[in-house]
UniProtKB/TrEMBL annotation:
It comes from Mesorhizobium plurifarium. It comes from the Bacteria. This is Cupin type-2 domain-containing protein. Residues 21-90 form the Cupin type-2 domain. InterPro entries: Cupin_2, RmlC-like_jellyroll, RmlC_Cupin_sf.
Length: 93
């Protein structure tokens, strides 16, 4: 990914990749396609802007409330908060 969010890989093995993403206000992941199913666990309450081929939307994130997405999702994720935002992404291989 080529965005401005800071990505820290905590685990990368034959079964899973666990990455922590930290976003300054307005920072983004960069456009990417998920090659595996994945789970996101927000580390704080907040809002992210999602840019897809179909347009833009916003998602309210709740600290500790995980969500699951299937392989193939294509998007850019942007911090839509006034302060830092962070989540953990668990990609299943």
């Amino acid at each position: 990914m080529t965005g401005t969010a800071k990505a820290t890989v905590h685990v990368d093995n034959e079964r899973v990749i666990v990455t922590e993403y930290r976003f300054a206000p307005g920072a983004n992941t960069g456009w990417h396609r998920h090659g595996h199913d994945y789970v996101v666990v927000p580390l704080m309450d907040g809002k992210v802007k999602l840019v897809t081929k179909d347009g833009e939307s916003f998602a309210e994130m709740k600290k500790g409330a995980p969500y699951f997405r299937r392989e193939g999702v294509e998007h850019d994720v942007i911090n839509a908060n006034d302060g830092e935002y962070a989540f953990i992404e668990i990609e299943l291989k």
